Amino acid sequence: MLNMLRSENLKYKRTFAKMLAFIAPMYVLVCSLFMSVYFFTNTINWWEVSFMPFIICLICALSAIREKKSGNYRTLKSKDVNLKKMWISKIIVIGYYTFIASLMILINFLIVKLIFNNKVTDSIYINKLIIAVFIIWLTTLILIPICLFVAEKFGTFLAILVNCIGSVVGLFIVTGKKWYLCPWNISNRLMCPILNLNPNGMLLESGDPLLDSSVISIGIIVSIVGLIILSVLTSLWFAKREAS
């Protein structure tokens, strides 16, 4: 498995997918600085609602495109390769690069805090932002097997389309009782009690039902269990497809 992870990681050498983990956080930083008074609020909101799902979708789509250009796994039939482990390694490596992107956004937060401390007046503290960014990373991992499957099965356009639809649907059901049924919505809902932040970018007032902290454990459990189940199911599909 370790060799597969190394091999998969090598595929990202000098690729746009790898650069994306560094470029996207910097882009969010530059855009948010134009609204420096609400820097942290704007940045974390954009990160959870739009950028993190987009990064995952794009890396998955680029992975599928790269494999098709290199022969669409045809050489695997002549080699003794565990296809299930190969698929899981793809998910892990993509998760690794989204973690790098999360670290980059945190570094950006710290830089802004040090340089523009007097201009940034957000009520969100750095320690909460660190927790929030980690939770966003953890709860969006469930999107990797979904996006990777759609990209491999149906192509880049549908992968992006599904991601956009999922993100929009998530915003509509974030206040409902079944919010956890939409994988794109989980991180958005958890930011409500963690940062007192509504997915629309507005700060929540004291007593708002969205501040219920019990959703945090529910969201984390659903995300982890969903990630495991979807990773196993999609790995079985991948192994069956390539073996046929």
Automatic annotation (TrEMBL):
UniProt cross-references to InterPro entries, sorted A to Z: Lanti_perm_SpaE/MutE/EpiE-like
Keyword Protein transport appears in the UniProt entry: no
Domain of life: Bacteria
One Pfam match: ABC2_membrane_4
Membrane-spanning segments: 20-40, 46-65, 86-112, 124-150, 157-175, 215-239
Keywords: Membrane, Transmembrane, Transmembrane helix
Protein name stated in the entry: ABC-2 type transport system permease protein
